[in-house]
Each structure stands twice: as C-alpha cells, then as structure tokens.
Amino acid sequence: MSDQYSIILDWVVEEYSESGLVARLTAGSGVLMGLVDVGDRGLNERKSEMIQDHAVGILFALLIGHALADYPLQGDFIANFKSYKTKLGKETVWPYVLGSHCLIHAGFVWVITGSMMLAVFELAAHFVIDMLKCGGKTNFHIDQWLHVLCKVVWVIILIVVW
C-alpha cells in the first residue's frame, strides 16, 4: 500500500503494528528521513512533526546544493556571461546564462524538498539576488547571505505550510 500525501514528502506504508501504522518517510529526493510509528495519529500530523525534526538536515542539504551550484557547477562560462555589466555579458546572452544558472539552483531545491513551488521561488529569488550583485547593488558577502537566508525561508515554509 503506497500513497503520496504531498509534493514535499512521501509516505509509504510499511506495515500495521500493534500500536497502529508504521510508515517510511522520504524527502522529495528519495532520502530516507525516518521510519515512523504513526500509531493512532494521522499521517499528516506526523509528517509535520518529521519536517520539524529534520529541519536542520533539510537546511544543511539545501546549503550543500547551493555550494555545488554556485561554485563547481557555475564554471567560467556562467560566471563571465551571466552579468549584463561585463563586456562578455552585455551581449544578448546574459539572460539565458543567468536563467540557466538559476535553474540549476532551483533544481537542487526541487530535488531536496520535492516542492516545485519552492523551486520556482528559488529560481526567482536567485535571479533577483544575482542581478543585484551583477549590477553592483550588493557585494559577494551580501549575495551569499541573501542566498542562505532564502534557504532558511524555504525550510520555514516547509514547517509552516506543510
């Protein structure tokens, strides 16, 4: 018996025990978050508790995804062509390059959380934050802290909404 109760987390019923239902909880990426003895409580109530229990782990995974997407997966081409202010980026290619860079970030958020909505939020937020940095409105440190803040907000949304 298998059922998906949200786009964030999947519950797979493992067995019925004396205390009630036992379920396996996985994140959108398929990472096992825990084997849960739900007992008499509803799955959605327990799912909310599990998100709260694993909020730090989800945040850590989002930060790892950010580090991968912003450093080794960015490369020289993206770094040089994503800004409308650089000589190379002033050509009409910068929106495509910056958009692709932001899609990589959004992909990590989608895989880790399982939420397409949060991935779209990440896509938009990352685009705006990087545009501010490329335009000289922020510096590298502010840029990175704004990205980290976004990841914290995504985890808070997971806790509050789901």
Structural write-up:
By secondary structure, the protein is an alpha+beta fold. The chain folds into two domains: 2-53, no CATH class; 55-161, no CATH class. Helices cover 59% and strands 17% of the residues. The protein has six helices and four strands, in the order ββββαααααα. A four-stranded antiparallel sheet has the order 1-2-3-4. β3 (20-27) and β4 (32-39) form a beta hairpin. The longest helix has 22 residues, at 140-161. The radius of gyration is 19 Å and the shape is elongated. The two termini are 22 Å apart.
The termini sit apart by 22 Å
Radius of gyration: 19 Å
The main sheet orders its strands as: 1-2-3-4
> Into which percent range does the helicity of residues fall?
55-70%
Relative strand content? 15-25%
Query: What profile does the largest beta sheet have?
Result: 4 strands, antiparallel
Overall morphology: elongated
What value does the average pLDDT take? 77
Which regions have little confidence, pLDDT < 50, spanning 5+ residues? 1-17
> Strand-and-helix sequence, N→C?
EEEEHHHHHH
Overall number of domains? 2
Question: How does the SSE layout of this entry go?
Answer:
Layout: E1 2-4, E2 9-17, E3 20-27, E4 32-39, H1 43-53, H2 55-70, H3 75-81, H4 94-113, H5 116-134, H6 140-161
Antiparallel strand pairs: 1-2, 2-3, 3-4
